[in-house]
Amino acid sequence: MIPGARLIILGRQGSGKGTQCVRLSRHFVVPHISTGDMLRSAVREGTELGRMAKEIMDAGGLVSDDIMIGIVNERLSRDDARTRGFILDGFPRTVGQALELDRITEARPIDVVLDLDVPREVVLERISARRVCRDCGTNYVATGREHTPWICEVCGGDVMQRDDDTTDAINRRLDLYEEQTSPLIEHYERHGKLVVVDGVGTPDAVFALLTAAVDASRKG
Ligand code: AP5
Ligand code: MG
C-alpha cells in the first residue's frame, strides 16, 4: 500500500504550488487542500464566506486568521485527511496560522515542509501568463495564440485570467508574502521540518525534486 503523507508547500504566489500539488496529491494519494481554491469555490457559490472573501482576495489581501484556521481545522478533521494525510497549499500563511496548525497536528505531526523557491521576477512572468478554468480550476499558460472564447479541455468551462491576477493585487500579494509568510520558513527550519526545493525548471523536473525531498525526509 502507498504510504500517506502530511505535507505543507510554501512558496511565492505563482511559484507553482497549485500545479505541483495536483501531481503530489495523485502520487501520494492524499487530498490537495488549497485554501485559495476553497475560497474561490465559496465565491462561485455566493456563500457568506465567499462574499466576504472576494473583496479581500481581489485586492490581494489576506482573509483573517480566525476564519482560515476554522476552515482548515474542519477540513483536516475529515476521514480522508485523518487516515491518508494531506498536502496543504496556501496554508499556513502567517505565524498565527502556523502556531495554530502546530497545535492541530500535535498528535499526527507534519512530515515535511517544502519551500518551492522561485525568484520574484520569474513568478511575475508566470502569473501574467496564467489562465485558469473558472469552473474546475485547471491551470493553463497563455501564448497569445488561443481561440476566444477559450474553453477548458477538462470540463468545458471558460478559461480566464484570475480576478486577483491584476498588477496591483499581484504586487500586494508578493509584498505580503515577504512580510507575513516568509517568517514561516524560519519557523519550520527551527523545527527541522524545512526542505528548500528549486522551483525553476520544467514542471516534471520540479516534481522529481519534490518527491525525492519527501522520500529523503522519510528515510532520515
Ligand atoms: P491562492 O490561491 O493560494 O493564491 P496565491 O498564494 O496567490 O498563489 P498562486 O495560486 O497565485 O500561485 P501557485 O504557487 O499556486 O502557482 P501556480 O501553480 O498557479 O490564494 C488566493 C487568495 O486567497 C490570497 O491572496 C488570499 O486573499 C486568500 N487566501 C488563501 N489562503 C489564505 C490563508 N491561509 N490566509 C489568508 N488568506 C488566504 O503556477 C503559476 C503559473 O505558472 C501557472 O500558469 C502555471 O501553469 C505556471 N507554472 C507552474 N509551474 C511552472 C514551471 N515549473 N515552469 C513554468 N511555468 C510554471
Ligand atoms: Mg495556487
Describe the protein.
- There is one protein chain.
- This protein has 220 residues and is α/β, with parallel strands linked by helices.
- Helix content is 51%, strand content 15%.
- The protein has ten helices and eight strands.
- It has helices at 17-28, 35-45, 48-58, 65-76, 79-84, 95-104, 120-129, 167-181, 183-190, 203-219; strands spanning 5-10, 32-34, 85-89, 112-117, 130-133, 139-141, 159-160, 194-198.
- Strands 2-3-1-4-8 form a five-stranded parallel sheet, sandwiched between helices. Strands 6-5-7 form a three-stranded antiparallel sheet.
- The model has no long low-confidence stretch (mean pLDDT 96).
- The structure holds BIS(adenosine)-5'-pentaphosphate and magnesium ion.
- Residues 17-18, 36 line the site of magnesium ion.
- Magnesium ion (MG) binds next to helix 1.
Strand-helix topology:
Elements: E1 5-10, H1 17-28, E2 32-34, H2 35-45, H3 48-58, H4 65-76, H5 79-84, E3 85-89, H6 95-104, E4 112-117, H7 120-129, E5 130-133, E6 139-141, E7 159-160, H8 167-181, H9 183-190, E8 194-198, H10 203-219
Parallel strand pairs: 1-3, 1-4, 2-3, 4-8
Antiparallel strand pairs: 5-6, 5-7
The protein binds BIS(adenosine)-5'-pentaphosphate and magnesium ion.
BIS(adenosine)-5'-pentaphosphate binds at residues 11, 13-19, 35-36, 39, 56-57, 60-63, 68, 90-91, 93, 97, 126-127, 129-130, 139, 141, 164, 173, 201-203, 206.
